[in-house]
Amino acid sequence: MKKTTSFSIISLTGSFLLMLLLITASVRFGYQQTSFTQIYHTLTQFDGSTAHLVIQSVRIPRALIAAVVGAALAVAGVLMQTLTKNPLASPSIFGVNAGAGLAVVIGVTIFQINSLQAFAVLAFFGAAVAIITVFGLGSLDRKGLSPLQLTLAGAAMSALFGSLTQGLLVLNESALEQVLFWLAGSVQGRDIALLWTSLPYIAGGFILSLLLAPSFNVLAMGDDVASGLGIKTGMLKLWIGVIVVLLAGGSVAIAGPIGFIGIMIPHLARKWIGIDHRWLLPMSAFLGANLLLAADILARYVIMPQEIPVGVMTAIIGTPIFIYIARKVGTAS
């Protein structure tokens, strides 16, 4: 069914309002009891009390980080699936998570780095190196960048980076203790400074993706069609790689590797709003933010007073959906 413009606008508005509601709920609910009145007073009449400090320094940064990271991973997933023509593609298919994890583990084991700010820089660098390597390997074919070559190169580099990471952690158990929580993916305890550091890159990725949305629509019809319509497919694919570095790399730098959002959300967004990237990209951003916010809220209550990393919660939510998508794809083929 073709989605009308009015339907798309209503859907985006509803998703945006739901995101605001979930951000408010994320600030409100948790082990430390707070109220909506305290949230309001924190923003208008901050008095330095424990509740106000928790809201200002922990809850609000956590909610904002979850929203930004979820949105970025979802949009990166859309672009990955458009580029590779693979409905199961996600940022991790380019080795983003594995490259970031390896860079962090190298920093801990070899250079004894142990701060989250340093982790963020290393993770962004590792993600960028991973994507550059994958694009380089994917370009070795005489036909240039092809979905199959990119997918195979990404899978190979993910396996290589993952193996190197495991090997370094086996050799240095103290490093395992330092990076294990980060490797699981979490928005808990992340300093708001991490968000401000990565936000320009993530915002740049969002803006570029929206500007190139019409070209993505053409590319989704196939390389031959896109070339016939005057699209420089090689350059466009390189731009997608840059955008994925900005979005996924920036997200991993903040929260560590969080999986499944980049796989699930593009399918849900297409089902709801259609395949036009001009609507699909912002819808995916809002749905990704909503999913990660909801998962983070649930993660606080599963084993309260302790919390589980939100990356574990998204895996719990995403695994059955991933199986459904995989079975659907297998049946269709």
Structure characterization notes:
- The protein is mainly alpha-helical.
- It has a single domain (about 5-330), classed as Orthogonal Bundle (ABC transporter involved in vitamin B12 uptake, BtuC).
- It contains 14 helices and no strands.
- The longest helix is centred in the first third of the chain and has 35 residues, at about 50-85.
- The protein is globular, with a radius of gyration of 20 Å.
Sketch the major β-sheet: none
Count the domains.
1
Name of the CATH architecture? Orthogonal Bundle
Mean pLDDT: 87
Total beta strands: 0
Task: Look at the helices and sheets and give the structural class.
Answer: mainly alpha
- Could you name the CATH topology? ABC transporter involved in vitamin B12 uptake, BtuC
| CATH homologous group name | ABC transporter involved in vitamin B12 uptake, BtuC
The SSE order reads: HHHHHHHHHHHHHH
Alpha plus pi helix count: 14
Q: Provide the low-confidence segments as ranges.
A: none
Rg measurement, Å: 20 Å
Keywords: Cell membrane, Membrane, Transmembrane, Transmembrane helix, Transport
Protein name: Siderophore ABC transporter permease
Membrane topology: Multi-pass membrane protein
Subcellular location: Cell membrane
